[in-house]
Amino acid sequence: MIHRQHRALITLNAALLGVLALLVLAPVGGFGSQPDRVRGRGNYTMVGAEYTGGPSNAIIILDAQNQEMIAMYWFESKKSLQPLGYRDLAADARRVSRTPGRK
Span 46-63, mean pLDDT? Predict the structure, then answer.
């Protein structure tokens, strides 16, 4: 039982490290970026979060440099990370600043 838990934790950590490496090493124009936008080297923060829509919790990876965020959760039966959603925070900020009645 303990060996199974250790194996699951090692697999999860390896998957998280792989996602982080993929985000860091992604070529210009990587995940979610617009083709006309030059993507700079990211500044990443990863945090855990409660996810009530599924059997496990989620992780949120924030790229502060490029103002992007992706949420993922661990899908136990497939033993893989599954995306929950992506946000372009800069586009969200532009949209909010143009909303009538906002200062």
Answer: 85
- The edge-to-edge listing of strands for the beta sheet with 80-88 is 44-49, 58-63, 68-75, 80-88
Domain extent at residue 6 = 2-28+41-97
Residue 60 lies in a domain: yes
Q: How many CB atoms lie within 10 A of CB 72?
A: 21
Query: Quick check: is 21 in a domain?
Result: yes
Max mean pLDDT among 16-20, 22-26, 43-47, 77-81 falls in: 43-47
Give CA–CA dist 73/54, Å, rounded. 8
